[in-house]
Each structure stands twice: as C-alpha cells, then as structure tokens.
Amino acid sequence: MAAAQTNSTSSYPSPAVPSWLNTGSNAWMLTAATLVGLMSIPGLAIYYSGLTRKKFALNTLMMTFYGFAAVMVVWVLAGYDLGFGAASISIGYKGVSYGIIGTLGSVAPGLTEGSRALVGPLQVALNIPTSSLVWFQFVFAAITPLLFIGAIIERMSFKAWLVIVPVWSLLVYSVLAYWMFAGGWLNQLGAVDFSGGYVIHLSAGVAALAAALAVGPREMGKRNVRPNNLVFVLIGASILWLGWMGFNGGDPYGSTIDASIAILNTCLAAATSVIAWMCMDMRKFGKASLIGACTGAITGCVAITPAAGYVSGWGALIIGVFAGTIPWLALYKLMPRLKVDDALGVFPGHGVAGLVGGLLTGVLADPSVTKFVDPGLTGAAFGNIYQLEVQAFAAAVTIAYTFCVTYAIFRVVGRFIPLRETEPTLKIGDLSIHGEVAYPEED
C-alpha cells in the first residue's frame, strides 16, 4: 500500500489534534474504511444471498455476518500487529534485513493512547492515528475470508466455519498483508499491490479452490447457480462497486492526488469490464444478463485494485478490457476442466482477475502517475521488465502459500468438526441450520 505524505495542516490547540495529525486525511480514512466495511455488510452479504438457493439465503447471510464480527475481534487481539507491527522475525541477506512477520502481540492496549500510526518493519510514520489505521486495515482483513464463502455455500458446516475464519485470518491474511502491504520482504524485493489484488483477491480466489476441494462438491444435479433474488444481486453488486471507491481511494492513507486518481481509475476499469463481459455473454449466449453485468463490474474492480494508483486512464481502460474477458474465459473454459465445485465462481472472479491485474501492474505502471505515490516505480511498457518479473514472483508466492495453508487449515479443523452439513440438514436448509428462514411462508 502507498505511503502517505506526512505534512500536517492542523493547528488546533488541542491534545486531540497533535501537530503530526492531518485532519483532512484522517477524515477521509475513516470515511473510506466505512465504505469498505459496507462492502462486506450489507454489500457482499446481500450479493451472495441473492445468488444462492432460497433455502440457503439465511445461512449465507450468517456466514458473512459472523465472519465480519470474528475478524474484528481477532484483528485487534493479534491480527493487526502480525500484519503491520514492527518485525518480530526478519532474515538478513546481503546486508538487507527482510521483514517476515510483525509483532506477536495485541494492539488493544494502545488504542486509547492517541498514538501516531507506524507501519511495518521500517515503522514508517503516517499522519493519522493508530486507531484509524487499525479500523481501515480491519475492513480489508474482514472481507477477504468472506469472499471465498461463495465457493463453499450450500454445504459448508456453519460450526466449522466458526473456527476456520479467525484461524485463516491470522495464518494467511495477516502474513500476506505484512509481505505486500506493510513493507515486508516481497515489498522490499520491489513487488507492489496498491490495494489488495494479491493480498485480498488472489488469496481469496486460491483459498476458494482449496476450500472447495477440502469440503467437497454439492450433490450432482444441484451445482448450477439458482439465484433467488436478482434485485438483491444488483443491490449488492452496486454497494460493492461504489464501496470500492473507499477500497482503492483510501490506500494512499490520506487525501492525496493519487487517491483521486485511484478512484477514477477504479470506476473506469469497472465500467469497461461491464461492457466487455456483456459482449462476451452476447457472443456466446446471444443475450446479456444482469448476473453477467454485475460479475463484470466486480472483476473490473478486482483487476484494477493492484494498479489503481499506478496507471493512467489508458491503463485502466486496458485493465478493464482484460478484466471482462480473461475471468470470463476462466469461468466458462477453465473451471469445467478443473471440476471443482466453486459455487459462485470465486476463483475466476477474484483469483484470476486479481492475478491479471497484478501482472498488468508490472506492465502498465506509469511514471507520470507513480510519481505521486511511489517515485521510481515503472512498468515493463515503460522500460522496466523487472517489475513484471517481480509481480509474477509475488503472485507465485501468494498462490503457493495461500493454497497450502488454507487446505491444511480446513483439513485440520475437519478432524474435529465435520466440514459439511449432514445430508438431512442440507435437504431442509436454513431452518435446520439456524432455526429460521430468510423468506418465511405465509400462514
């Protein structure tokens, strides 16, 4: 993530507004974080629940709602310091100390101190309070495991999910965040991820594959998506699209020029991807669908995420075209060959789109834009082939680490708690799992 400018414009004679605090940047960070939080609840919850079968709509809502709460607790107790604290483990190589993981402690005791946010192995000082950064980074940590719910709906054990979410957040998300967001070893090698194309979306997509393999498929004949409410799908997707302005616009950590660039690029790429996906649908099926258009908006947002503050408007357009075509091909050509029951296409929609965006960042990073956030960052199209190479290496590391650890977590939890609901429970659905339903029948 991009480092913020540290000059302060505040001059109030109050201990609540110290000299290092930039009140405009802090206000934007709190707003951006709340926009991202709304992407999870209600955005993603409504989107996924609208796409699933009617009898599993409430279970999908509950998995999302619980996950958001669970990550909040574990984030304050341990996740934040692991992902953004001073290095507790580092490796020296050729005179350089590479940060591997953050502090093995809790940020909770310091949240009331009003301290200045310090990030990563170099403890880079920002012009916002620690509490603002904890809140902002939490909403990213929260949405990541919620994304791969879409791969395992309609059969995942809710009791097993209660354990998996906090464990996965600690062992996968916090580690990747340190490597790619906080200035850890992949950042030190030169890899960049503006707002989570790798840390959030590639990891969620790969975790979706690992989770679907561990849990197993739905019954044959019940694997096609049967949306129960397309209005909810549109509402959820719209909240995700607009919430993404905080997702990518907040990552410069302030009210900066690159924040504005990132927001405009995000919307441009999403809109282009919608059109590209609709064209692909019309070419294959002869008509455009609402689900396809919504999927295109999300893949566009995903693909621009690692590049949002690094590319020009032309770069965003190019990424949008690729976002609306490559994930489409992955969904309709690759997934049938993999024979993995990824119910809502999380791997192509987030994993493939995140990978495409991360690699294109290595090609399209434009020095006329990166000068505002990361001077010296240049893509292969502007003469720096190493940026593409290191982006590919970071993707390989993310894929390998996420898949192995996710699969291991599911298998270990599965030894103690069954990963699947029983067949009698699945036949009934929400009423059997939670004792209530999303759409009760009238008396």
Write the layout of secondary structure elements.
Blueprint: H1 23-51, H2 57-84, E1 89-93, E2 96-101, E3 116-119, E4 124-129, H3 130-147, H4 149-152, H5 158-180, H6 185-189, H7 197-215, H8 230-249, H9 257-285, H10 290-304, H11 313-338, H12 346-364, H13 367-370, H14 385-414, H15 423-428, H16 430-434
Antiparallel strand pairs: 1-2, 3-4
Helix pairs in contact: 1-2, 1-3, 1-8, 2-3, 2-5, 3-5, 3-7, 5-7, 5-14, 7-12, 7-14, 8-9, 8-10, 9-10, 9-11, 10-11, 10-12, 11-12, 12-14
CATH topology: Ammonium transporter fold
Q: Compute the number of helices.
A: 16
What general form does the structure show?
globular
Q: What is the SS-derived class?
A: mainly alpha
CATH architecture: Orthogonal Bundle
What is the beta-strand fraction?
A: under 5%
How many β strands by DSSP? 4
Q: Which CATH top level class fits?
A: Mainly Alpha
Number of domains: 1
Unreliable sequence segments: 3-10
Helix content: 55-70%
Q: Could you name the CATH homologous superfamily?
A: Ammonium transporter AmtB like domains
- The largest beta-sheet arranges its strands as 1-2
Secondary-structure element series: HHEEEEHHHHHHHHHHHHHH
Structural summary, described in words:
The protein is mostly helical and 443 residues long. The chain has a single domain (23-432), classed as Ammonium transporter AmtB like domains (Ammonium transporter fold, Orthogonal Bundle), CATH 1.10.3430.10. The chain is built from 16 helices and four strands. It has a two-stranded antiparallel ribbon with strand order 1-2. Helix 3 (130-147) runs parallel beside helix 7 (197-215). It is globular, with a radius of gyration of 21 Å. The protein starts with 22 loop residues before the first helix and ends in a 9-residue tail after the last helix.
